[in-house]
Design brief:
The complex is a heterodimer of chains A (about 260) and B (about 230).
Chain A lengths: L8 H20 L5 H28 L2 H22 L7 H21 L7 H32 L1 H8 L5 H26 L7 H8 L4 H30 L15
Chain B lengths: L9 E12 L2 E12 L2 E5 L6 H8 L7 E6 L2 E2 L5 H7 E4 L10 H12 L5 H7 L16 H13 L5 E5 L7 H17 L3 E6 L2 H7 L2 E6 L2 E7 H5 L1
Parallel strand pairs in B: 3-8, 3-9, 6-7, 7-8
Antiparallel strand pairs in B: 1-2, 1-4, 4-5, 9-10
Helix pairs in contact in B: 3-5, 4-5
Chain lengths: ~260, ~230
């Protein structure tokens, strides 16, 4: 399954022609996104180059502690980023952090325990990054939806609390919808994978000259692991975050 | 009109109850007694009526002061058990998705009661056929009655009603008022009704608590309090 491919900086620079095309379209159709396109291009270059060197160092050091440190940093920044999407949820950071940490730990732990990947930096870093990245998106979408649902449905939630339902019971339909919206995107894209789009890992392996069957199998493993990690992260984040809307006396908090 | 029952037992006793929201005092040192029977909480918009009602079944707690229910501090009650006994029907209908009967079953189940759907619907002025109706297809008046039936499914001792007819036309209002008066004769239940309309208070209650800008303007027998 080991393959190698050499990409020169010149080739990367040549790909900028397509960025220029995107900017030109934005300018032509006045979508006013040129600046964002430039920022996105520069950030992706700087961030990926930096993480590339960091990963190189970690691969060379070959110690599990550096891997854990890197994954912890990813979980932390993932939770911080997702919190920005969940502004209507009070105290969203901790549920997100715990959700991402549990999703990363359980899915990586499982793929290692099942003997799918070796517990080495070469596997744990990229796979962990994928798990955390997708879990972040799923839990951010879920908490964003939860915030909208609760603020739109305060009257219904309070009417249910008034019947003597617990906060958990009163919030259940909204938590369910939030969880669904957090996980459905990946489920839908998994359904259409291979038909409408080719996922990134498979494309990368094919470009790097791997056997198509190897590329497909690895992609399947990652897709299945991603389904697990996004579901776990969204479940934990929504399951913890909804409590922050309520007081211990089962009252809906006034939000400023 | 019924005779004023001044011998009636004290249900709620409020002592110096204050509540501030967004830096604005909503209730300011409210002290009052609410007795068994029917009490109207009246006052203009923004006088703190609905907020006061929400304090009575602990949907909110005051910032200062104490509330006692049947001589026991409210905060000593388990809020869930209290809400089964002191049931609040909010101003606007807010039923759960599904049928009327599924809403009644949900409420009865929470309170650990056996549901007699036809009886609850009948007390709320709805035919038994309403049980199978989807709540999304009811008129506002029908939804308000379904909310009342849902509260009654818990067999509460006290019913808190927040502007029960504000979303209704005259005919529907008269019908709901008739239903509430009938409830008082058919059930051993106390009503606490928030209303901005003193005439409605006269039709429904025998005592009144009048609020003005979060303070008690008057409290006592109806005509005395509304004078």
């Amino acid at each position: 399954m080991t393959t190698s491919i050499d990409v020169s900086l010149g080739q990367v620079a040549a790909a900028l022609a397509l960025v220029a095309l995107a900017a030109a379209i934005s300018f032509w159709r006045r979508t006013d996104l040129e600046r964002d396109i430039v920022v996105a291009t520069v950030r992706s270059f700087v961030q990926l180059t930096a993480i590339g060197y960091a990963i190189k160092l970690i691969f060379e050091a070959d110690t599990i502690w550096l891997v854990l440190a890197l994954l912890s940093v990813m979980v932390f920044f993932g939770a911080l980023t997702a919190r920005g999407r969940a502004k209507k949820v009070p105290g969203a950071f901790w549920p997100l952090l715990i959700g991402l940490a549990i999703a990363a730990a359980s899915t990586l732990g499982l793929v290692v325990a099942l003997g799918i990947f070796e517990a080495t930096p070469r596997y744990l870093v990229p796979v962990g990054g994928m798990m955390i990245g997708n879990a972040m998106t799923a839990s951010a979408v879920a908490l964003n939806r939860l915030g909208d649902e609760v603020s739109d449905s305060r009257a219904r939630i309070e009417a249910t609390l008034a019947l003597g339902a617990t906060a958990r019971e009163a919030a259940a339909p909204f938590v369910r919808r939030a969880l669904r919206s957090g996980t459905i995107t990946l489920i839908d894209s998994t359904k259409t994978t291979g038909l409408i789009f080719f996922p990134g890992t498979m494309v990368g392996m094919l470009l790097a000259g791997a056997e198509p069957t190897d590329a497909v199998r690895l992609q399947l493993i990652l897709l299945y692991a991603l389904l697990g990690s996004t579901a776990i992260a969204a479940l934990v984040a929504t399951g913890l975050a909804y409590r922050n809307f309520f007081t211990p006396a089962q009252q809906l908090r006034e939000l400023s | 009109m019924r005779a004023v029952r001044d011998h009636a037992a004290v249900l709620f006793e409020l002592r110096d109850v204050s509540l501030t929201r967004a830096g604005r005092p909503v209730l300011d040192s409210v002290s009052a007694e609410i007795r068994t029977g029917a009490t109207a909480i009246v006052g203009p918009s923004g006088s703190g009526k609905s907020t006061l009602l929400r304090l009575l079944n602990r949907l909110a707690d005051p910032d200062a002061g104490t509330i006692a229910y049947r001589d026991r501090p409210l905060i000593e009650y388990d809020p869930l058990a209290l809400r089964h006994e002191v049931s609040l029907v909010p101003q606007l209908p807010a039923l759960l998705e599904g049928t009327v009967e599924s809403n009644l079953l949900y409420a009865a189940g929470l309170a650990g009661k056996q549901l007699d759907a036809a009886r609850c619907l009948g007390l709320a002025g709805l035919d038994a056929e309403f049980a199978v109706r989807d709540v999304g297809k009811l008129s506002v008046g029908e939804q308000q009655r379904a909310m009342l039936a849902r509260a009654l499914a818990q067999e509460p001792d006290v019913l808190l009603l927040d502007e029960p007819t504000s979303a209704l036309d005259h005919d529907a209002r008269d019908a709901i008022e008739g239903t509430l008066l009938r409830l008082r004769t058919e059930l051993d239940i106390s009503l606490i009704v928030v209303s901005h309309d003193p005439e409605q208070a006269r039709r429904l209650a025998d005592r009144a608590l009048r609020l003005k800008a979060g303070r008690v303007a008057a409290c006592g027998p109806l005509e005395e309090a509304l004078a």
